């Protein structure tokens, strides 16, 4: 079993991945954004605390100086007991004690503030790392995103082409097989049978030669007629297989001849209109145009119940446009071209030929309103 490329599924997968990356990117973006905001707030906090730390340090220094003074004062009053009243001494003692307590409290506060500042610094550094990582991630996701959406989203198309070409390859082989089957059947039913008949009749002639010359003469005449008919059948088969006139004369003259034959044979009034300068095109284009018209005309004969068939051939510098129209019963195009079921290869075959040459095919038909087959093929140099 060959691996099936499901281009649509691949596209879906790539698109889902792209969406996930985009979502992820947005989320990381939000994380980075709120981290940045938090960082901002934290920096402001840190500044405030730093200010407080500085103030507290100054306060501690001031208090320490005050404490030194208070202590000196206390030493002084306690040294000179006589000159200072008891209440003065007590006051000095209380003052010193109060300042000492203030120093302790303020130092404690300084410690706490420093600790908070250190903690904030640590958290700030963490936050900075988070932001840096988020930004790197956003860049990486951006790269992944553009890689996927730029290069890989094309892969669906590439694979679709591969798949289409593979499908087309198989269909071309199928169509070739069909064609061979048709030719085999035509030779079997036509010339092969006539030849067998000719051999039989020749044997009869041989046996009757001495007895009834007149009978032999008429038998030989019939033999000649059936060989002649067979010859024209063989010519027809050869023409259908490969219109050699196409190689010798080119598109328009071959078509003219073919359509005159068609009109004689099927009693459908045909008309060929050629616009533009008649010239030779590359072989595959000539064959494709001829085969397409041949199939369209065959369909008109087989299905359309039409009385007229018109072919318009437009030859421009860049492309060949073909327009085949009948006044027949029409049909439901989407139904008839939905798939190769039921062995209807004709229109599909045209489509494949046209697609292989990168041309366009359009079939317009409505029941009761006739059919138009419109195709155009780009002219290439090869
Ligand atoms: N010019 C036409 N007028 C009416 N019906 C048509 C015409 N061309 C095609 N169809 C319809 O489309 C079907 C598919 O055509 P085609 O692919 O050539 O297969 P096939 O000729 O072997 O049936 C035909 O069976 C017929 O029903
Ligand atoms: Mg057909």
From TrEMBL:
Q: Which Gene3D superfamilies match?
A: 1.20.5.1930, Histidine kinase-like ATPase, C-terminal domain (3.30.565.10)
> Which keywords describe this protein according to UniProt?
4Fe-4S, ATP-binding, Coiled coil, Cytoplasm, Hydrolase, Iron, Iron-sulfur, Kinase, Metal-binding, Nucleotide-binding, Protein phosphatase, Transferase, Two-component regulatory system
Cofactor(s) needed for function: [4Fe-4S] cluster
- Quote the Pfam families the UniProt record gives: DegS (PF05384), HATPase_c (PF02518), HisKA_3 (PF07730)
Describe the reaction catalysed, as an equation: ATP + protein L-histidine = ADP + protein N-phospho-L-histidine
Q: Where is the Histidine kinase domain?
A: 182-381
Query: Which cell locations does it reside in?
Result: Cytoplasm
The cross-references to CDD domains, in alphabetical order and at most eight, read: HATPase_UhpB-NarQ-NarX-like
List the SMART domains hit by this protein, alphabetically.
HATPase_c (SM00387)
**Source organism, top-level taxon:** Bacteria
Q: Name one GO molecular function term.
A: phosphoprotein phosphatase activity
| GO terms for cellular component | cytoplasm; membrane
Q: What does it do?
A: Member of the two-component regulatory system DegS/DegU, which plays an important role in the transition growth phase.
Question: What's the name of the protein?
Answer: Signal transduction histidine-protein kinase/phosphatase DegS
Protein species of origin: Tumebacillus flagellatus
């Amino acid at each position: 079993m060959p691996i099936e490329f499901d281009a649509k599924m691949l596209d879906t997968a790539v698109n889902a991945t792209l969406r996930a990356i985009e979502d992820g990117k947005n989320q990381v973006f939000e994380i980075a954004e709120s981290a940045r905001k938090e960082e901002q707030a934290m920096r402001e906090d840190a500044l405030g605390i730093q200010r407080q730390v500085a103030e507290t340090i100054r306060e501690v220094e001031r208090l320490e100086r005050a404490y030194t003074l208070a202590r000196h004062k206390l030493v002084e009053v306690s040294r000179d007991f006589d000159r200072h009243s008891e209440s003065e001494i007590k006051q000095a003692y209380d003052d010193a004690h109060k300042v000492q307590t203030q120093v302790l409290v303020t130092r404690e506060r300084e410690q706490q503030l420093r600790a908070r500042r250190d903690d904030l610094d640590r958290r700030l550094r963490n936050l900075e790392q988070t932001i840096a990582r988020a930004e790197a991630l956003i860049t990486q996701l951006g790269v992944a995103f553009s890689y996927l959406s730029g290069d890989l989203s094309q892969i669906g198309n590439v694979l679709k082409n591969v798949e289409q070409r593979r499908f087309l390859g198989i269909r071309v082989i199928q169509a070739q097989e069909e064609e061979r089957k048709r030719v085999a059947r035509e030779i079997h039913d036509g010339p092969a049978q006539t030849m067998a008949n000719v051999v039989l009749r020749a044997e009869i002639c041989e046996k009757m030669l001495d007895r009834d010359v007149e009978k032999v003469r008429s038998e030989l005449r019939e033999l000649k007629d059936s060989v002649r008919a067979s010859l024209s059948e063989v010519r027809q088969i050869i023409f259908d297989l490969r219109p050699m006139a196409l190689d010798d004369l080119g598109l328009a003259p071959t078509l003219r001849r073919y359509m005159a034959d068609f009109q004689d044979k099927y009693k459908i009034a045909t008309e060929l209109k050629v616009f533009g300068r008649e010239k030779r095109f590359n072989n595959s284009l000539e064959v494709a145009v001829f085969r397409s018209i041949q199939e369209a005309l065959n369909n008109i004969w087989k299905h359309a119940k039409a009385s007229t068939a018109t072919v318009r051939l437009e030859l421009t510098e860049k492309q060949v446009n073909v327009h085949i129209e009948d006044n027949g019963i029409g049909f439901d195009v989407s139904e008839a071209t939905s798939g190769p079921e039921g062995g209807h290869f004709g229109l599909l075959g045209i489509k494949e030929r046209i697609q292989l040459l990168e041309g366009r095919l359009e079939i317009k038909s409505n029941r009761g309103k006739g059919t138009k087959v419109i195709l155009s093929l780009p002219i290439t140099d090869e």
